[in-house]
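We treat protein structure as text, and this decision shapes the records that our systems exchange. Because each token names a local backbone shape, the row as a whole describes the fold. For reference, a complete record is included directly beneath this paragraph.
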Amino acid sequence: MSKFILKNGSGSLCCKGCGRQDNKLNTYDWMADIPGNSEEQDMVEVQFKNTRKGYFKNSNHLKLEKGDIVAVEASPGHDIGTVTLTGRLVPLQMRKANIKPDAEIRRVYRKAKPVDMEKYEEAKSREHATMIRSRQIAADLGLQMKIGDVEYQGDGNKAIFYYIADERVDFRQLIKVLAEAFRVRIEMKQIGARQEAGRIGGIGPCGRELCCATWMTNFISVSTGAARYQDISLNPQKLAGQCAKLKCCLNYEVDAYVECQKRLPSKEITLETLDATYYYFKADILKGEIIYSTDKSFLANEVTLTARRAFEVINMNRRGEKPEKLNDNGMHEPARPKDLLEQESVTRFDKSQNSKNRKKKKNGENRQQPVQENNSQKALPNNAAGQEKGENTAKIAVNATTANNVPSNSGKDNRRKEERQGEKRREKGNRPPKQQGAAPNPSDKQANQPEARAQQPQPEGNKQANNRPRRQGRKNNNEIV
């Protein structure tokens, strides 16, 4: 066993107090560090399957520690169990379990041998099949009972059947049939619904193992008054545990809620103002805040008050005074959700995510709009693109003509360069001379761009200029006719 040395040099700590975590109802031995603790008491606590425990006497003075597997006395034969507690705490646990000192206490035989463990594992492997077969037999006999668990003794000579029944059951015929079917000694034990859940085990709504399966031994009755004090909705599906009874954890915090509720005003007192009458609707008991409504049946014009302010308004009403508003001028109402039963909704966590997704979608649409406009411009047909280019070139031509009216040396230089290039091309014979209205060549990149663009829309302009007088002439001809 590993030891942990204290820094102040006063001694060391050991891990003997912690038991194996696979055992239910483990007890922490906080006196395991005391020297000679295990030798002071002969009594030993032994745990069997699930929640069954027993106390035995170490008459042979075996050196037993927590976690040892031992063979103990049983009737008939012997049983196999695990040591869970030794030393001075065992008598305290016996007193807690209401075991009288005059009761007959059996003894520990020995530490378990490999032969004992083989018999124990063989008997343990038959428990599930025996339980299913016994349920069928009880149903055939027409007994109103449910067999919840079967436990074989360590030597395989005895079987304990745990059952649940609402009424008294005569199982004498059942015992005879079970003894003939399984060839073992039969013992019947009636248990409650909470004890059955403790034996079977499971995970509670809190995400942890069931309290009845880990540490609870005494089951206290739970009433719906505990839920009323804590202001919990009386929904049987939420208040009931896996045993179909009220949850044991409802009793854990009742005392704290009762103390805090004494500091709040009564539910029957109404608050009067100059505008309306406010009724008690809901309260946060631990926070000390109360929600008042102008309607008794549903929430309308909600106002959240502290307990101190509520008592002030109550005293004012007793004196015959009515305030203008329930809240003080300097007091701000805390942000409260509109749906007071929002905690019971399955989709209560989806609202924030939906709002975030909507914002992302809006930002994405705003970003996609300029991109779509650019794509639409790119996706225009060739004719439309040509028209737009023609309009742009026409504008450039107009600007060029206005610029040509102003004398400039740069225009003369550009014209001289164009004349020289045209003469060189004519001499080579590679290309015929340019004509008006011809399509532009990509090889003419060296030419000045503004003038080249200005020359391009000239045919269109000439066509328009020539069409106008012709139309006038036609009209005149028609008039003559």
About this structure: The CA atoms of residues 396 and 454 lie 6 Å apart. Confidence is low (pLDDT under 50) at residues 1-13, 371-391, 393-408, 431-481.
